[in-house]
Amino acid sequence: MPKTKPGLLKDLKHTYDGLGANPIRVFDAEASKIEGVVKLSLGEPDFNVPEHIKQAAIKSINNDESHYAPTPGWPAFRQAVVHFLKDRYDLDYDANTEVTVTVGATEALHSCLDIALNPGDKILMPSPTFSLYDQLVRINGAEPVYMNTESTGFVLTPEQLQQAIDTVHPKAILLNFPSNPTGVTYSKAQVEALAAVIAKTDLIVISDEIYSELTYGSTHYSFAKALPEQTLLINGVSKSHAMTGWRIGFVAGPADLMKKVVLAHAFNVTCPSNPAMAGAIEALSTEAGREDSLAMKAEYIKRRDFVVAAMTKMGFGVPNPNGAFYVFAKIPAGYIQDGNDFCYDLLHKNKLALIAGNGFGPGGEHYVRLSYAASMADLQEAMKRLQAYIDENKPA
After folding, report:
1. Where does the Aminotransferase class I/classII large domain start and stop, copy by copy (predicted)?
2. Strands lying side by side in the sheet with 122-127
3. Which of the following CATH numbers is that of domain 12-48+290-391: 2.40.110.10, 1.10.443.10, 3.90.1150.10, 3.80.30.20?
């Protein structure tokens, strides 16, 4: 096995200094070593990809669609994205100049941040928020600036946003709703109130709406509807159609910004995968694809209601999540209050893996995140184990 010549390590790219593996993945890997563990740690649907979507990909392979696709993706898929965004969220984009297909939402984020941020720039992020954002910002040499939303029900207010803009003078803002980790989303009125503040600035808005199809009790209202001229909208099929491993996302935005996004995308990955795009066209443009996401959403609502009721009864503080598939619960008083310590103690004593809120930024330190994208049988067993932990570790 080769060993790195020591001198090569002296001056590698400094924006990677201090960055490590995603803490969610690190904890999940440790939990996986424990025999009999129940894991509610990763945000990954437990459903299989629907059969008609798989058949579309198989057909693509059998038709020898094995050559390079256009860098921004097949025209047919970009048109499917335009149809999807118009049909679901009343958004208007041009398939030729305003949409790019990416290798998952993560690559979409990377490409958007890459073109938006220069070294030293600051970008605003409501917190708690997805842990990967921090690292993607820092490898661009920029600085994430968190706006703690714990006291406002995990919803950023116009007043908080205005204060941050006046204090920090940021280059961009990165939003995620429905939210990972909180499951909270924004109403039309809340989106429009934030957009009114941002419209007075030249901020670039990067809006990660990958969970948009999993909005409960209301219709998702996209930030791109309120402020299209400043918004780069990110979405994809990973969560809506249980296609996480297919790695298909997309970005939509104003043509002049999208020219830059396409360049960053091209330098990163050249083009997306043909069979995956074929499956994603089927997911986004057919009635069967719409029914797939609706059926999954109905199951998630049942699971959410079960978990929220069980954890509330145990004494956790659980704001009812109205999107995504996470419960972000405040640890009951009298128990270990640090999320990391609580989760490791729970894992080793009761073989249940939840994710600590610490890794999601300010406001998450006393919380744990549970993914209910798991079977009802697993959720029932998880609640039994969590109840046992609560009973066995009652404060004196």
Report:
1. 36-386
2. 99-102, 249-252, 231-236, 204-208, 172-176, 122-127, 143-148
3. 3.90.1150.10
Q: Which residues contact 74 (CB under 8 A, 6 or more apart)?
A: 101, 274, 277, 281
Integer Cα distance of 188 and 190 in angstroms: 5
Q: What is the DSSP letter of 323?
A: B
d(CA 307, CA 327) in angstroms, rounded, equals 8
Three-class SS state of 270: coil
Neighbours of 32 (CB within 10 A): 12
CA 349 to chain centre: 30
Q: What is the DSSP string of 165-202?
A: HHHH--SEEEEESS-TTT-----HHHHHHHHHHHTTS-
Tokens of 188: 């039309």
Q: Which two tokens stand for residue 84?
A: 């999807």
Q: How buried is residue 121: exposed, middle or buried, by Cβ count under 10 Å (0-12/13-18/19+)?
A: middle
Please tell me the distance from the alpha carbon of residue 232 to that of residue 182, in angstroms, as a whole number. Answer: 22
Return the DSSP state at 332. Answer: P
Looking at the chain, which residues constitute the CATH 3.90.1150.10 domain(s)?
Answer: 12-48+290-391
Sign of CA dihedral 131, 143, 223, 254: negative
CATH 3.40.640.10-classified regions of the chain: 54-287
Q: What is the token pair recorded at 56? A: 């579309």
> So what CATH class is 54-287?
alpha beta
Coil, helix or strand for 235? strand
Question: From the first residue on, what is the mean pLDDT of each consecutive set of 10 residues in the chain (396 residues)?
Answer: 90 82 83 94 94 98 97 98 98 98 98 97 98 94 97 97 98 98 97 98 98 97 98 98 97 98 97 98 97 97 98 94 97 97 97 96 97 97 98 90
Taking the C-alpha atoms of residue 149 and residue 204, their distance in angstroms, rounded to an integer, is 21
Q: Which two tokens stand for residue 154?
A: 């995990």
DSSP summary character for residue 352: E
Residue 42: how many CA atoms within 13 Å on its side-chain side? 14
Which own/partner pairs from 85-88 qualify as long-range (CB within 8 Å, at least 24 positions apart)? 85/222, 85/233, 85/235, 85/252, 88/212, 88/213, 88/220
